[in-house]
Design goal:
heterodimer; A: 80% helix; 0% strand; B: mainly alpha; 12 helices
Amino acid sequence: MTAWLVVMLVGIGSFLFRLSMVAIADRVTLPDTVTRATAFVAPAAFAALAATGVTASIVGLDLLGALPPLAAVTVAAIAVRRTGRAYVAVVTGMPTLWLLTFAVGA
Amino acid sequence: MAAAETTLVRSLHVTEFAAGARAMLPWLAGVAPFGLVIGVSAAQASISTLVGWLTGPVIYGGSAQIATIEMLNAGAAPAIIVVTALVINLRLILYSAAMAVRWRGTPLWWRATAAYLLVDPSFVVGIDRYQRPSGGNEAHSYYVGAAALLWVAWALAIGAGATLGAQLPAALHLDMVIPLYLVGEVMRKAGDQASRRAALAAGGVAVAAFAVPLHLGMLLAIIAGLAFAITAKEKS
């Protein structure tokens, strides 16, 4: 019973977070600073998610073990810079990761 | 039915819906193993498997779900579990703020449904479409296509993990698919100085705050990114 209640409360709270700003959009004009800030939520969130994911993949590894994911990110960034296409990051990054992981035996 | 509601319901753009679903596909490679893991942990925990699976459709956020299942399994106090999981999900308020401008004028039921589906992948895919031209009903259809596919895949992955205990081979390193994809998105989007500052500050703080408990590092990183971007904008 307690488990059901906990899951429901977390679910309701999370839904209210999601709905909070969206629900008041018609009635409340957000301050200028907040409106300007929302334009940067995407690049900030993307970078934070990417950095957290990469850090999670190398935490606890030695330099040699961390080399494949870091090299994969570098290759991906260069490839996107040259092509201007985001999916190229995965197409070039994953094979780099697999090859280097195999090469260093990590 | 109100005029805005009728327009929205009648104007579901099938091609945009399908395009949104296609844009979500790269995410599924990274998200599905996470769902499987949550399913497996739900099956192995002392709570009922059904409750563990329900964290998917009810909470709908991987980190908060894992925290809830693990803390329930460990016998933590209910109030502590609820507060911990909600702190993990605090970033959803920022996503809601970013979507508020785009969803203004839509019926409340649509906003409630779209908000329920709002989570990291659907936000990333959706906001990308809203920033392109013709961001009205076409973009709404795109968002719903992406978010609906994610929801179905998430529910199936957790269900598969809970029933089969399945796990994809760790040697594939599928956990790197999403970070790489996001690196691509950041490189592509951070064209102006303010966006570059937002990305650099957020990425730096995310690494520095990686060990901060309750996944608060993510929230701190986004706030730092916003602060740096606004400062750059005001100076220029």
